[in-house]
Design goal:
Layout (H helix, E strand, L loop, with lengths): L1 H134 L9 H20 L6 H15 L1 E2 L20 H7 L1 E2 L6
Parallel strand pairs: 1-2
Length: 224
């Protein structure tokens, strides 16, 4: 009995010793296992992060190439527009030079024509004055309508007196000869620009009978 008790105590002591010694060992093993688990977890995270980085790099490369392509297209388009605008500017500059030369030419021509016009206008006025003095009574320009009528009556009277000296055909013959003469020798004609004047009564030049016969025509107010 005593031996059995001693053996039991030895076995219990052994288990106590093993238990006491094993606890720190198990804690150490547990710590190592935890470290391994943490290491594996961290490695997995690192791999995930590396995969994400690679994905982002790939997307970034795709975006970079896309942006470069778009930028190149824009650059090519803008360069084409710039060249087109430069050509248009050159064309407009050339056209501007041509127009300036033409403008200078036409300004010179206009200046010459203006000088010629002034000289011609001056000469025309002089000729009008000379013609009025030569073939048109100066006092008629300032006559009243009553005085003009008297002038016409006197002119008609002069014609009647002259006609008395001519042979006296029959009325039929006279009218026929007048008709034939008018048809064959006269025509309606407006007042010449050279003898028109604002001072002429009614804006018209009143020809005397001899003027109408010499000119072989006239308008409504001319005599003969």
């Amino acid at each position: 009995m005593r031996k059995f008790l001693i053996l039991f105590l030895i076995i219990v002591s052994f288990f106590v010793v093993v238990y006491i010694v094993e606890i720190p060992y198990l804690e150490s093993v547990r710590a190592v296992i935890n470290d391994v688990i943490d290491s594996i977890t961290n490695r997995r995270k690192v791999l995930e992060l590396q995969s994400e980085v690679e994905r982002l790099k790939s997307e970034n490369e795709i975006l970079r190439k896309s942006y470069e392509s778009q930028i190149n297209q824009l650059r090519i388009g803008y360069e084409a527009q710039i060249n087109q605008l430069r050509n248009e500017v050159d064309r407009l500059n050339t056209l501007n030079d041509i127009l300036r030369k033409n403008l200078t030419y036409y300004i010179d021509a206009l200046s010459k024509l203006s000088s010629e016009y002034s000289a011609t206008q001056y000469e025309l006025v002089n000729l009008q004055n000379k013609l009025k003095s030569a073939v048109f009574p100066v006092e008629l320009l300032t006559m009243s309508q009553y005085e003009v009528n008297n002038f016409l009556i006197k002119s008609l009277t002069s014609v009647i007196n002259i006609s008395k000296e001519l042979p006296k055909p029959s009325v039929e013959e006279f009218l026929m000869k007048v008709f034939e003469y008018i048809m064959n020798n006269t025509y309606y004609q407006y007042d010449s620009i050279a003898i028109r004047s604002e001072n002429v009564v009614g804006g018209n030049y009143w020809k005397l009978a001899n003027e109408t016969l010499i000119d072989l025509g006239g308008d409504c107010e001319d005599l003969a």
